[in-house]
UniProtKB/TrEMBL annotation:
CDD domains linked: MMP_ACEL2062
Molecular function via GO: peptidase activity
Keywords tagged on the record: Hydrolase, Protease
Pfam family, one: Zincin_1
Keyword Hydrolase among record annotations: yes
A single GO BP: proteolysis
UniProt KW Mitochondrion keyword: no
InterPro entries assigned to the protein according to its UniProt record, in alphabetical order: Zincin_1 (IPR010428), Zincin_1_sf (IPR038555)
Top-rank lineage group of the source organism: Bacteria
Upper lineage: Bacteria, Pseudomonadati, Pseudomonadota, Alphaproteobacteria, Sphingomonadales
Protein name in UniProt: Putative Zn-dependent protease with MMP-like domain
Length: 142
């Protein structure tokens, strides 16, 4: 499932092997930039974090038994649930969990940049209060 023509679009220093944190972040930033322009003003304050794996507290709060089962997490209040009265809150945050994404990449054989994009768009979709169907449509638009 290799597309050699796309290799020139990959982050500098990425050889096709498991990327380091910097190359992983570059792929996430490229995915974020690929969202349609209409969404860009609403995601400028969303913090994108890259962590190797979710900690035990996060996994327990989501009732997820194994850390490889969580590839991404949105933390915040969706735009559809906000009020003008709410202020002083922490910025919304999307965390991508690098090792579970890499495990899925190895097991499924998808292009890694596409997989990162898929997880990121899904988590950004929660920021907008989208349903799973809405998120699939957003991914098709991006």
């Amino acid at each position: 499932m290799s597309d050699k023509s796309a290799l020139s679009d990959l982050p500098v220093g990425w050889t096709g092997h498991a990327p380091d944190a910097d190359a992983f972040r570059a792929m996430a930033e490229a995915a974020l930039a690929s969202l349609p322009d209409v969404f860009q003003p609403h995601i400028t304050d969303v913090v994108i974090a890259i962590e190797d794996i979710a900690d035990d507290e996060v996994l327990a709060s989501l009732d997820i038994p194994h850390p490889y089962e969580l590839t991404g997490l949105y933390e915040g209040r969706p735009l559809t649930e906000r009020s003008i009265d709410a202020s002083g809150t922490m910025p919304d945050r999307v965390t991508l969990y690098r090792i579970p994404i890499l495990v899925e990449w190895i097991e499924e054989g998808e292009r890694l940049d596409w997989l990162i994009r898929h997880v990121l768009i899904h988590e950004i979709g929660h920021h907008f209060g989208f349903s799973d169907d809405d998120m699939h449509a957003l991914e098709e638009m991006a």
